[in-house]
Specification:
The structure holds 2 protein chains of 2 kinds.
Chain A: H1 15-36, H2 47-58, H3 66-97, H4 101-112, H5 116-127, H6 134-157, H7 161-169, H8 174-212, H9 217-226, H10 230-258
Helix pairs in contact in A: 2-10, 3-4, 3-6, 3-8, 3-9, 4-6, 5-6, 5-8, 6-8, 8-9, 8-10, 9-10
Chain B: E1 16-26, E2 32-43, E3 48-52, H1 59-67, E4 74-79, E5 82-83, E6 91-94, H2 106-114, H3 121-134, H4 150-163, E7 168-172, H5 180-197, E8 200-205, H6 208-214, E9 217-221, E10 227-232, H7 244-266
Parallel strand pairs in B: 3-8, 3-9, 6-7, 7-8
Antiparallel strand pairs in B: 1-2, 1-4, 4-5, 9-10
The chains are: A mainly alpha, B alpha/beta.
């Protein structure tokens, strides 16, 4: 691994990313501050004002309780996430390896093209806007699961037939084949699907909450939309954005740790040895 | 140097007799492709037996049948004097590509094929140490395959095949994807292993100099799936890869091969 000055540095975690990221961030915030001078604080708040109102939201000073609404949104995201991963993985593996794949591939691809907003409207019309979990979770699961299924499907298809032939020639049991070949081969796809599912679930839960719920961050955002308060919409979104970003990074680190066998992941010992 | 007897008579105790072996694949378009047509093969105990042929002939299919990964259509296999199902032949398979689990260490890759057998933890441990020592990789036990060179990965493949302590080693063009220098090293190491373990080796290649350098006996398969020639290679060991005498044998065999291919193509 090389630092930005070309010096070799031995650090466990992507240090070379820090400084460029920092520059971009500073440039972005500077631009924001500059633009905010031309708008009313209600439309585009300056950084100081934004920090103040974000703090007031998180500390509970706003008319809506942040803890209450954020907690319900988090629960919805987590419940959706579990359903998305389980259904998506089963669908994806079935599409990749089973004889029923012909029945599944086209329907899943069609689902993939269906807009989440359409799901939200239909489900609200059918079930009303008062369910705590059902509508939001269902919309999110319906909209995100096809992405995971397609991702896992590609993973299942990429499993090397040569390895399976090797396993058969050495008389490995089915359990051993699953444990040592199928599951590890799918792991990269499970991780990337998991991160994708999390990122999409958070966005779509919010969309679903806007149309289909009277509680949750999406509901509050919708309220401030009605009140024409762009600054409050941003202030309510920032804490969840930061939390989701943190979770995404954490997942990425866990992923890196579990792939020590891939040379490109761990740069420190990656020089290939010669025979 | 030659203190092994060439096992051509087939009366050794642990020899393999394959008779009337046939295999036809049906392609997607419904076309039938005969890859092995009524093959008879006799491999003596401890023999280095090579099957030569152009790409697309049934060389690999023959090995896969002996390894029990694909069924034969017709034929009998006899081992140590009695009929045997190919799935029961005591074989270890070395493939053209290493076919290792890249997410498992070298040691775990070897252990993988031992777990299914009735061995205690300490017996498995002993085997792993033994076979890695044999292929010169005892220091790489904790390495992941993708950190090793192609030659080293192929050595792991050989160690894994040796781990199940097979009487017969099946090798499917194991050195064909390596550079020539690495391949030469591995060929010499393989000959040492063969000498010290006294295993029977059934080796498939399309490289005539490799076949002549390594083998006691070379059998030629053609694209119709038939054996058309068999030769004992009687040069003394150790052989030199560029020895003119070997080159002469190679040239003669190549002539036989091309003459034969010309006759089957003109029909």
């Amino acid at each position: 691994m090389y630092g930005y000055l070309g010096k070799r540095v031995n650090v466990g975690y992507d240090s070379r990313l820090y400084q460029p990221t920092l520059y971009t961030l500073i440039a972005f915030l500077g631009l924001w501050q500059l633009l905010s001078l031309f708008f009313s604080p209600r439309d585009l708040p300056g950084l100081v004002h934004l920090a103040e109102i974000t703090y007031s939201v998180v500390s509970g000073a706003d008319q809506f309780s942040f803890v209450e609404h954020a907690w319900i949104t988090t629960q919805r995201i987590l419940v959706s996430f579990v359903f998305i991963m389980v259904i998506g993985t089963v669908l994806g593996i079935t599409m990749g390896v089973s004889k029923y794949k012909e029945f599944l591939t086209v329907p899943v691809m069609i689902f993939l093209t269906f807009p989440a907003v359409v799901w939200a409207f239909i489900l609200v019309m059918w079930f009303g806007a008062l369910t705590t979990y059902f509508v939001v979770v269902t919309v999110t699961v319906l909209a995100v699961t096809p992405y995971v299924a397609v991702n896992i499907w590609k993973g299942a298809e990429s499993i090397d037939d040569d390895l399976l032939e090797m396993a058969h020639s050495f008389d490995l049991s089915t359990t051993a084949i699953w444990r040592h070949i199928f599951v590890p081969a799918l792991m990269p796809f499970l991780y990337s699907s998991g991160r994708l599912a999390f990122a999409l679930a958070w966005k779509l839960s919010l969309v679903a909450e806007i149309f289909g719920s009277s509680v949750g961050i999406g509901f509050v955002v919708h309220y401030y939309f009605g009140a024409v308060r762009a600054d409050m919409i941003i202030a309510w979104s920032i804490p969840m954005m930061l939390a989701m970003f943190g979770i995404e990074r954490a997942l990425k680190i866990v992923e890196k740790r579990s792939f020590a066998w891939r040379p490109e992941v761990d740069d420190v010992h990656s020089e290939v040895k010669t025979a | 140097m030659v203190n092994r007897t060439i096992a051509s008579e087939g009366d050794d105790l642990m020899s393999i007799h394959v008779t009337n072996l046939s295999k036809t694949f049906t392609e997607d378009e419904g076309e039938e492709l005969v890859v092995l047509d009524d093959i008879d093969v006799t491999v003596g105990d401890g023999e280095f037996y090579t099957v030569m042929g152009p790409s697309g002939c049934g060389k690999s299919t023959l090995l896969n049948i002996l390894a029990g990964t694909i069924p034969m259509d017709r034929g009998e296999i006899e081992y140590a004097g009695s009929p045997i199902s190919p799935t029961d032949l005591p074989v270890g398979y070395v493939f053209q590509e290493p076919r290792l689990l890249n997410w498992r260490t070298v040691g775990e890759n070897v252990d993988l094929v031992l777990r299914e057998r009735d061995l205690s933890k300490s017996q498995r441990e002993e085997r792993i140490v033994d076979v890695l020592e044999m292929v010169g990789l005892h220091d790489e036990r904790e390495s992941y395959p993708l950190r090793l060179s192609g030659g080293m990965r192929q050595r792991v493949g050989i160690a894994r095949a040796l781990a199940v302590d097979p009487s017969i080693l099946l090798m499917d063009e194991p050195f064909s994807s390596l550079d020539e220098l690495t391949a030469r090293n591995l060929r010499d190491d393989l000959l040492d292993l063969w000498k010290s373990t006294e295993k029977t080796i059934i080796f498939v290649t399309h490289d005539i100099s490799e076949a002549v350098y390594l083998s006691e006996s070379v059998t030629f398969l053609d694209t119709r799936g038939r054996i058309f020639h068999q030769s004992e290679i009687e040069h003394d060991r150790p052989r030199e890869p560029d020895d003119p005498a070997l080159l002469e044998t190679e040239a003669a065999l190549m002539k036989t091969f091309f003459d034969h291919m010309a006759t089957i193509q003109s029909v």
